[in-house]
């Protein structure tokens, strides 16, 4: 049985669609991913050079720094969203409200209880992860057992989103809230400025993303998550504790969502119960841009979306930057429907 489990943990790569274990892990460096990666890097560099010629190095670099800040919490939220889809095939429209929940849990600990913001952030991540596991036990596991279809599950995620959002609104109201962090202090380097809190957001975001990537690539749990993504029935037959892996998936996905909500709130300074609702479309855009079900693609998609939106403010009014990000998404999907790092499905 042990030998069979090892075989399932490293399934052979397949080309017929995004369901393979390689899809969850990501194809950024595999044989099928080098081409799109190189093309994407070349396009980003070309866009940066063109903007530099037109607007100057300082303005392009400053907006690039701003793009990394927003891209870091886009990527955190998108990776959590795609982990659930890649493993369970669940399109979770409540994911944005998990970000909101995490932000308000940090507010509860940091402002209401007077706990330091670092401890409050850890508290928010743990409680949001617990909410994800609770939703798995109460909602998604029973529905999978009953053979619920995609439409039923999507409607349930929408219902859960409204329950979380209006539950928060009942407790804290609609008045904007803020964490006890300094959003005015900034640091300078090479003539560029970044808020001290924003710098922490970027460093924490990238550190966590690297840790998640290392977990997916180098640990037994990561290999089991990939095996589950490939074929849940086969994973069960080969001795993998699928229930434990599913719970772990929700811990990571919801925990990352809670962290993204806290980092977003810390970066922009305020939050409302609609925080996650407004971010959700951008998170889905990052997931689709990178390749649906592709964890590393979601990471890259989040960063690209953040850079594209901030660089676009050199050309258009900043209030249109979200629309510019979606315009780029549409163009990419017209050219490459599976996303930048996804694999095309083979049709019969």
Based on the model shown, name its key terms.
single chain, mainly alpha, globular, 348 residues
Overview of this protein structure:
This protein is mainly α and 348 residues long. It contains 14 helices and two strands. Helix 3 runs antiparallel to helix 4 and helix 4 packs antiparallel against helix 11. The radius of gyration is 20 Å and the shape is globular. The protein has helices spanning 2-9, 21-25, 34-55, 57-88, 95-112, 117-145, 150-172, 196-218, 220-230, 232-237, 242-268, 275-290, 295-312, 321-335; strands at residues 186-189, 192-195. The chain has a two-stranded antiparallel sheet with strand order 1-2. The protein has a domain at 2-8 and 59-287.
Provide the fold topology.
Blueprint: H1 2-9, H2 21-25, H3 34-55, H4 57-88, H5 95-112, H6 117-145, H7 150-172, E1 186-189, E2 192-195, H8 196-218, H9 220-230, H10 232-237, H11 242-268, H12 275-290, H13 295-312, H14 321-335
Antiparallel strand pairs: 1-2
Q: TL;DR of this structure?
A:
This protein is mainly α and 348 residues long.
């Amino acid at each position: 049985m042990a030998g069979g489990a090892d075989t399932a943990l490293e399934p052979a790569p397949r080309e017929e669609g995004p369901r393979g274990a390689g899809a969850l892990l990501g194809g950024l460096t595999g044989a099928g991913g080098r081409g799109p990666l190189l093309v994407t890097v070349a396009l980003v560099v070309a866009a940066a050079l063109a903007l530099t010629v037109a607007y100057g190095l300082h303005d392009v670099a400053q907006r690039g720094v701003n793009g990394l800040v927003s891209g870091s919490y886009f990527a955190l939220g998108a990776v959590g969203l795609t982990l659930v889809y890649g493993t369970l095939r669940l399109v979770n429209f409540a994911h944005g409200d998990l970000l909101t929940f995490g932000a308000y849990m940090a507010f509860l600990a940091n402002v209401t209880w007077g706990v330091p913001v670092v401890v409050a952030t850890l508290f928010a991540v743990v409680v949001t992860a617990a909410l994800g596991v609770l939703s798995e036990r109460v909602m998604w596991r029973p529905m999978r057992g009953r053979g619920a279809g995609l439409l039923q599950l999507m409607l349930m995620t929408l219902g859960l989103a409204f329950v979380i959002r209006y539950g928060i609104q009942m407790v804290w109201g609609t008045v904007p809230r803020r964490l006890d962090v300094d959003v005015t202090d900034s640091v300078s380097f090479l003539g560029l400025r970044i808020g001290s809190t924003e710098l922490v957001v970027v460093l924490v975001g990238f550190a966590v993303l690297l840790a998640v990537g290392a977990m997916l690539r180098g640990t037994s749990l990561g290999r089991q998550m990939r095996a589950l993504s490939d074929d849940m029935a086969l994973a069960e037959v080969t001795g993998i504790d699928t229930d434990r892996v599913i719970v772990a998936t929700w811990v990571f996905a919801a925990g990352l969502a809670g962290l993204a909500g806290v980092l977003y709130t810390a970066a922009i300074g305020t939050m409302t119960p609609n925080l996650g609702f407004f971010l959700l479309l951008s998170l889905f855009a990052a997931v689709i841009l990178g390749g649906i079900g592709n964890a590393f693609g979601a990471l890259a998609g989040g960063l690209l979306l953040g850079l594209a939106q901030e660089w676009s403010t050199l050309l258009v009014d900043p209030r249109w930057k979200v629309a510019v990000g979606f315009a780029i998404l549409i163009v990419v999907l017209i050219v490459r429907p599976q996303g930048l790092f996804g694999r095309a499905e083979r049709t019969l």
